[in-house]
Design a protein that fits this description.
Helices cover 44% and strands 10% of the residues. α14 links the parallel β8 and β9. The longest helix is centred in the C-terminal third of the chain and has 33 residues. The chain has 384 residues and is of the alpha/beta class. It has one domain: Aldolase class I (TIM Barrel), CATH 3.20.20.
């Protein structure tokens, strides 16, 4: 998509609607959907939208900046691109394009274990280190090898997802027959045929299956056996001893993603991790769990002075970033917001999604009378 067309994308919803038209339904809904009745998915957005911001006037905000740090590293705004499985099925080489857009914008990108492009593919295609997100599989030898590969690629942080020891059912994926590559159902073939630009981008992409797994495990080269292996590999025995084991293997900064409870946050803060992410996996795991924004304040109160707290769950605007930071988050992760950009326009679409959020945050700061990210606190929230 040309830059002029991208400029007409005024908000994340514009990118979403464009992606919906351009990406096959199975993959669009894979990224968009949540588990079971999608109550927690809906709560993530609804609870953010209920938070009102306090408009202030006649404050000199001519010298404001959205710059801050995440894990001690300078960033252009308090935002990182969250790990997204099958990112490269929204657009060919999607992980590489998203990482390039993030790095050009001056924010972190996190690559998923379940990515299409591999750790090595992305490392060879970008100039700076990125984060890597780790799922703990039953095959601990494979987990160790993944950590070693992330270290060899000079990944600057390891994001350990701790809330997927068993997979929450996503009804949309079952109905759509989601597979990688796409299952050859008649409705899928018709859908793909109606989206030639998407099909061309995928055809030109480096890979068509899970790049971090295919070719790294004996007998798992074929897509069908690979999917079967993945389905049986999430590990219900995952516990805090595994976190200790991983921390001992990883030489860099460790982030624990998927904390939603104060008791768990208190344990996480003692692991030596550099940060935790308050997250309910985008409403894709325990349906009926609290929204991430509802869980944030008590966790900040309990451990905010001892560990950096990041926020994930429902970010669609700069106003949402303001809300989360006001309630104590150091920075936010966004997933669907940038995925919509990727589906809408590749790297340019991701760049546009980041710029939309940055610009909205900048205006929001001005209209609430603050000039710096570290000045954002509960005073910017209006009394309800």
């Amino acid at each position: 998509m040309e830059s002029r067309a991208m400029r007409t994308m005024t908000c994340i919803e514009d990118l979403r609607q464009t992606a919906r038209r351009k990406v096959p339904r199975a993959f669009f809904e894979y990224a968009e959907g949540g588990s079971y009745a999608e109550q927690t998915l809906a709560a993530n957005r609804a609870d953010l939208e209920r938070i009102r911001l306090r408009q202030r006037i006649l404050v000199d905000v001519s010298n404001r900046s959205t710059r801050t740090t995440i894990l001690g590293e300078p960033v252009s705004l308090p935002l990182a691109l969250a790990p997204i499985g099958l990112c490269g099925m929204q657009h060919g080489d999607g992980e590489i394009l998203a990482c390039r857009a993030a790095q050009q914008a001056g924010i972190p990108f996190c690559l998923s274990t379940m990515s299409i492009c591999s750790i090595e593919d992305v490392a060879a295609a970008v100039d700076k280190p990125f984060w890597f997100q780790l799922y703990v599989m039953k095959d601990r030898g494979f987990v160790r090898a993944l950590i070693e590969r992330a270290a060899a690629a000079k990944c600057s942080a390891l994001v350990l997802t701790v809330d997927l020891q068993i997979l929450g059912q996503r009804h949309r994926d079952i109905r759509n027959g989601i597979t990688v590559p796409p299952e050859l159902r008649i409705k899928n073939i018709i859908d793909i045929a109606s989206k030639p630009a998407w099909a061309l981008s995928i055809a030109r992409g480096r890979r068509k299956t899970f790049g971090n797994i295919a070719g790294h495990i004996g007998g798992m080269e074929n897509a069908n056996s690979l999917s079967q292996w993945i389905a049986g590999q999430f590990d219900p025995t995952l516990n805090w001893k595994d976190v200790e084991w991983i921390a001992g293997l990883w030489p860099g900064k460790l982030i624990l993603k998927g904390i939603l409870d104060v008791e768990d946050a208190l344990i996480a803060a003692k692991t030596g991790a550099a940060a935790l992410v308050v997250s309910n996996h985008g409403g894709r795991q325990l349906d009926g769990a609290p929204s991430s924004i509802a869980a944030l304040p008590p966790i900040v109160e309990a451990v905010g002075s001892s560990i950096e707290i990041l926020f994930d769950g429902g970010i669609r605007s700069g106003q949402d970033v303001m809300r989360a930071v006001a309630l104590g988050a150091h920075a936010c992760l966004c997933g669907r917001a940038y995925i919509y950009g990727l589906g809408a326009g590749g790297q340019a679409g991701v760049a546009r999604a980041i710029e939309i959020i940055r610009s909205e945050l900048d205006v929001c700061m001005a209209l609430t009378g603050v000039s710096a990210i570290d000045a954002i606190d509960r005073r910017v929230i209006a009394a309800m």
